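Re: beginner question about structure tokens

> Can someone show what the tokenized structure looks like for a real chain? I only ever see the sequence side.

Sure, here's an example I had lying around. Input first:
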Amino acid sequence: MLILRKSEDRGHADHGWLKTRYSFSFSDYYDPRHMGFRSLRVINQDIVAPGQGFPTHGHRDMEIITVILRGQIEHKDSMGNTKLIPAGDVQRMSAGTGVQHSEYNPSKEQELELLQIWIEPELRGIPPSYEQATIPLTPQALTLLVAPEGQGAPIKIHQNARLYRGHIGSGSKIDYPLPPGRYAWIQQIEGRLRINGQELQAGDGLAVSREERLELEGLATSSFLLFDLA
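And the corresponding structure tokens:
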């Protein structure tokens, strides 16, 4: 079963310094039909103005993943981390028992664009932790970004979930098996993609249930995220 979440149907907000699109209910945007998918709770597409950002605030018991699409972000947290995260890098922060952090666009000229992702952890009350990695993408393939410990991903997550980034050209195909009991969410970043007959454009999301495999075909040069979820 495939359920399409069109880009234009997402929630949105414009705070001047921050323009954002919500795939699921978040902050002042609430839609009981879209509260998340399996353990995936948040996908926000944020565009942050130069010199602006999210001031220090707190989280608990959440796996927070940031994928930088344009620009770079300056991260500071109560664990003592001060990091600069450029486009192409992936950040994971496990909030666990509690963490305070801020995220800013340090550029005076360039916008920052990112995908902010929240995944609910398997265990609550774990110690907070932080990881960041530069992960080269393999053309015409899925590149594993995040997975549980021991599954060969550059970044670990405390949940039975795997996150891939795909990049394929027009006419190229990727076949991805989904074993029984597994689900998928695909978030299109750019380009056009066909998945099991369903077309996606930039900003679209697709919830996948009870499918044995995914056939992903590029209708134009495409970049996307694929979440493999329990």
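Each token stands for a local structural state, so reading them left to right follows the chain. The chain has one domain: 2-229.
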